[in-house]
Each structure stands twice: as structure tokens, then as C-alpha cells.
Amino acid sequence: MAKRKKPSKKKLVGFLVSLLIVLILALVGYCAYEFVLKDRLAGSSSDSSSSEISSSQSSGSLPEGGYDPISFHFLDLKIRYTGDCTYIKAGENDILIDAGARQASAVVIDEYLSQHVEDGKLEYVIATHAHQDHIAGFVGNADDSLPGGRTGILYQYKVDTLIDFPLTDATTNIYKNYKIAVEHAVEEGATHYTALQCVKEEAGAKKVYELGQGLTMEVLYNYFYDHDKSDFKKDFPEMGGSFSEENDFSVSLLFRQGEKAMLFTGDSEEWSEHSLVTQNDLPENVVLYKGGHHGSYTANGEELLKATSPDAIVFECTAGNDEYASTPEHSFPAQETIDRLAPYTERVYVTQQGDWEDASHFEPMNGTVVASYDSAGKESFSFTGSELPLKDSEWFLENRTMPEAWR
């Protein structure tokens, strides 16, 4: 039998030297990544352009492939009247919350939606309450040349799911015509739920709707979905103040992208806000808050602001006009509201401005405001008007007192 040759000492030494060189190179590579490249990558990911605003809230661990993006479009309605209308693109879903301010606004809203809604269908429509400045655009004006014979959004778009207010005391013609518009949408295939059905998950309604990867829309519970003011006084004896009928009936919603939260409260005022805080599991921080009741002094109370600590606030209103105010100080957004929110954020935006002396005057302040969150949860804002926050606007400097927190 032939003897196996032992490896020579020369070859063994060469092998060990080669192995040592490989280990040294691996160690050098690791150190270079840890102390140089890693820092550069972290720096590049946190940089933002002038049109982007970094959010203070992390989205946490991203799911595989990231989140579906979501954007919130607070519309400048190009009319002297104040009204709410917010279009939301959530993944593949097109959503519309309210359609103010007047019936003629339907044309302006339609022009905007037509640029974003590719298939002529809104997956979700939410009407928060029965006031004209929130539902008139759903009805629109008569036009025999159009399908359904009206310009209203509920006539011009297919709707999958329509959610609205369970209670109302409204008897106005616009509310009656709104109900007819809802009937038309249902005849065309829409499923109609009240917010109360959603929170109770009755008749197929859901409390939380999945909108895409990492995206949800939650219908929050409001005591005034199924109670009146006499019940409230019994159940919440600690509360003073007063009940504001239609406003406090408002449907409220919470959107989420991962850990980020965005809050919409319609025209909820003091009592309704108390209900939202005490009877829902609200996040301790919202990255975006659609300012309540257009910035009225009767809304955006300290209780809600403290509970949700908003990073950015958008008011849909015509700042400074006399439409809903008896004094300039109480025109939207009111001095009291500004004083309450100032400690929480300087990032406050307003769609439009007017003039107390000239009710016919209106022009963009920030214009249409779009807050977007991409697949990594990175936030950016864009404006069709000024990019300045409210505190730095000419209107504010001339018509409001600077809160201490903003000085």
C-alpha cells in the first residue's frame, strides 16, 4: 500500500498566511461599513428637499415591499364661502370626505377629482354631517345634459361605499336633496351605511376598513351617533359648555399608515370632542389633523389637542371673512383656537383667505394643501398657494396676535 504524503511545512504556512489575509480584509471591510458608509447612508436617507417636511413620527419596521402610499388633498374650493372637501388617495382607493361649500362647488370638485380618479369611481364617500358647507357639492345644480340631471358628485361618480351621519335635526332643502342624491347613488350600486352601523359592525359595515398594505380607515365612535344632549348631561355630568346639534353629530375618522395616524373630526365641538377622547383609543400623536369646524373657537379644544398632540394641522376655510362670525376675532381660524394649538405645532395651514370688510373677496392662502406619505412613510407637503405656515402669513400678522409659543 502506498503511503500518503504529508503536506509540506511550506504549503501549510502559505495556507495560514492566506487565511489570515482574508480575515484581515473582512475586518477592514466591516469597519469601513460601520464607521463610514453606514453614517453616509443614514445621512442620505434623512435628507429632504425643500418641498418635503420630515415627520417626527417613525413608521416603525416596514413590511416587505413597504406601505402603500397615501395622500390627503385639502381642496381650495375657489369660492368665498367656507366649506370642507378632502380627497384621499389610499393605495388603489379613491376617497372623498365631504363636498362643500355650495352646490356650485360640485363643478370645482369634479374638475379636481377628474385629474386623479382614473375610473370614475369613488371607493368610499363620507358625509360627516348635514350642514350645507359639507354636503352641497354631493347634490350640485340641475343640468339636464349630465347623467342623473345634476352636477353633484353623487351623480357624476360611481360609489362603492357611502358612510354618513346616523342622526340629524336638519330640515333644509339641501338636506332633502342630499337624501335624494344618496338614493340615486344606491340605485347605481352604492352600499350605504351610517357611522353607527360601522362602529357596531352591523349589516356588513366595518369599523376598520383595509385600504392597502399598512393602510386602514377607522370609523371612530361618537356618543352623538346614538344619544342626544339630555343623555349626555346625565352620562357626563363633569362637562360644562353646550351642545352644538349638527356639528356634534359629525362622523369622525382615523386613518393609519403603519404607526402614523391622521385624524378627521368634521365639525365636532366641545362635547363631541370629549366623547372622541374618552370613548376611543386615540393615538398619543397624530401626524396630520384636519382642523375641527374650520378653526372655530368652539372646536379644537385642549382636551383633544392634548390627547393627540398633532404635528401638522390644515384648516379648510376662508380665513377672516364674516360668514360664520359676529366679530373679526371669531372669524376662522379664531384667536382662541390658535392660542390652544400653538404649543403643539407651528405647522398650521389654511386653504383660503377672505376679508372682513369685503365679503366678496377671496384668494388662496396655502391653496389646495396636499400631505403625502410614500411607501417608506416619508412625509411631504405641497401647496397651490403660499408655502408659508399660518403664523408667517401676511393675513395672520395683520389680523391675529402671535401666541407666546410661536414667538
In brief:
This protein has 407 residues and is α/β, with parallel strands linked by helices. The protein is built from 12 helices and 16 strands. The strands form 2 sheets. An 8-stranded mixed β-sheet has the order 6-5-4-3-2-1-15-16. Strands 7-8-9-10-11-12-13-14 form an 8-stranded mixed β-sheet.
Protein architecture, described:
- This protein has 407 residues and is an alpha/beta fold.
- It has helices spanning 9-46, 105-113, 132-139, 153-156, 173-187, 195-200, 229-235, 245-248, 270-279, 302-308, 335-341, 394-399; strands at 70-74, 86-90, 93-97, 121-127, 158-164, 191-194, 208-212, 215-219, 253-257, 260-264, 288-290, 313-319, 348-354, 362-364, 369-373, 379-383.
- An 8-stranded mixed beta sheet has the order 6-5-4-3-2-1-15-16.
- Helix 3 packs across helix 5.
- The longest helix is centred in the first third of the chain and has 38 residues, at 9-46.
- The radius of gyration is 27 Å and the shape is globular.
- 45% of the residues are buried.
- The model is unreliable at 1-13 and 31-59 (pLDDT under 50).
